[in-house]
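Note to self: keep these together.
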Amino acid sequence: MNQENAPLPLRAPGELLRDQQAAITALVERQLAGGAGPAQRGASSGSDEQQGGTDHLSFLADAMDAGTAALFTCHVAWASVMLGKRNIPPADLRRRLELTRTAVRDALPGDAGTLAVEYLDAGIAELQSTSADLPSCLPPGAPHGALALDYMAALRRGQRHVASRLVLDAFAAGLPVRDIYLHVFQPAQREVGRLWQLNQITVAEEHYCTAATQLIMSQLYPHVFASEKHGGTLVATCVAGDLHEIGLRMVTDFFEMDGWNTYFLGASTPAQAVVDAVVQQGAQVLGISATMPSHIRRIEELIRLVRAHPACRGVAILVGGAPFVLAPDLWKKVGASATASDAQEAVAAVRHLAPAR
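Structure:
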């Protein structure tokens, strides 16, 4: 076929939206500034970047590329609560989404426009059922719930030494490390996110709690790494741009306790560096974490790069993180071997995938 007459490759619907993102945002902002009441003007000029139309459109584009409205509707529900707790009423968010829907309908032709409007309609409908009352991630009746509550209270007081002593004493009394991870660290981290969303802690406090938990996890490492090894190797990484590594750290530690050798790359690792590590370590499994929908395309690109390397044939690829929880079939779309919602499930999933060790 003549190269000049070759058909152009089909573009993902989210890419088409991103092409028009700046123009759509500018139009929506002008309309909000021209016809908004005091509350709406405050919302448009606020400092929370999550309120900006560009951010909503980014989530919309990511959801369109993934082929699931849930990624967008969950963002809308999250934003509604977060903004409401910062004195920006849900009506303002609804108005922004309605104006965005009109602008998108005019800017995007064909199937991409139809899909964008469908997802925006779903997001607007989500506002009707969103509740500002988010239940605690540390219910007293949960396994080891009293310990988790005391641990979280110590962190909120800025007493990481007290939090550390609570954990180490519980371990000395016979509480397994796995249970500490699953029933103390994991729900505590989720509670930190909930409290920030509800405007009950600051970004500094959020970072302190996470850093303290990472430190306390490290105090358990002599016991984590004491497991007898069986020869299998896991490389674990967050994709480029993802700075949230504590969840993946927990997954990696569970693999260590299950007898694996692990090679933890941490946050925001370039794709080629990940491939090189998989090859150099002779890994049977690659674990990849994503926190935001915007990371999905990078995961897909990383998996494609791994699959294309001759030395990586047969490597099992496990993905996890919030987008894969919201969209249970998303792991298939990105080309992974399986997904898992927490560290314990990740180990169980890989037992069915990895070759005998």
